[in-house]
Fold glucose-6-phosphate isomerase.
Amino acid sequence: MEFNPGFDIIPTVNPMGFKYGADVFGPQVENRYLRDIRGSLSDPQCDGPEIVYSIAMDVGKCKHREMLERMHLLYGVVTYAAGRLGKEPIRSQGHIHWVSKYSGWSTPEVYEIWTGEAIIYMQEYAEDNPGRCFAVYAKAGDVVIVPPYWAHATISANPDKPLTFGAWCDREYGFEYDGVRRHKGIAWFPVFNDEGKIEWRANPCYQPSELICKSPAEYPELGIVKGESIYRTFEKSPDTFLYVPNPGLKEEVWKNYEP
């Protein structure tokens, strides 16, 4: 892989999924099909790969399994297919994390790119006024953190190769799609132009907004060590990501947050 995630896991392409090392636990993958996300695309009738992405929630080193359960942390991994969805890149439909009964918060997510190129898109609200909107461009080894309550989608920026990423999540994860689906998608649609570069088109179902395109922040206040995998950071200092299931621990960070 382009980046070492810190434990023995290898993405597979045909079929899409993951191969786990002897000291690693993980489930069978769940697949997301094109038919599942058509309603959130700018062209719901577009062609594209039947399996858009494959997800394995709750992976890690076997020796950490009980600790992760006790800390209410979960590590998930996702692989996106190469290709396009019509004129759009391969992407998720967009969602908000539901409010966890464990913390009483919608929870954040800590993304780490392993292979390919990603854009982590996020907007403050899934309401008529989407608030601030960001498109964070990330490559292998980069970390992007989505704050609590924000709607977000993950986009593969390079159609010629699969995108793989890992993420720290709340163990009581769940997704709310209603706001995004009510607006027929996120507030800005990524679309390939004739030169194969991604352009952004405003979704007319929202009020006008500005899109800020940027590189990832460094996030030292959220425990990110540049060049070190987020799993290895956890292994060295297990309490680092306790703010994922308990976002209130970093309440001040989430105010006026910029990714």
User: Anything to note?
Assistant: The CA atoms of residues 24 and 61 lie 4 Å apart.
